[in-house]
Amino acid sequence: MATQIPLSKVLPAIDRKDRNFYDNLSDDEKKSFSGFLLTRYASAISGDPELQYYYLVSTNHYANKYMFDLSRHKKLQWLMLTAASPNLGTFHHSWIPQKKKPKGTGSEIRKKLAILYPAMKNDELDLLSTMVTKKDLTQHAKDCGNNKS
Hints:
mainly alpha
């Protein structure tokens, strides 16, 4: 099993723009390198709101856009992560969890919306299902002349 790289070692290296950090890793540590995981951590810092904003936008601009396209080029992923840092010291980075999808009536509403709008993409249906209520769908059905919904 590959040796995990401690976050307490990796994240300060990103903040310092240590371009040689990846080269100095052992072969086992290089195997465990995860650009996606580090992108999630690198984009969120504690402290000044302007720096928080900078890290988020910069990480998205320099690393997040191309991370999966360059999944076989770990060194290049590392260099993209270091490009995102403004080199203003080290910061506390935190994990950004993925949003959880709401359960319950949203899925029922989403199914009805998918029938009404078959050309919509999944993300559009998800967004619309958060904005529309059952009452809205019932009213829409009545307006269209369909008394059952």
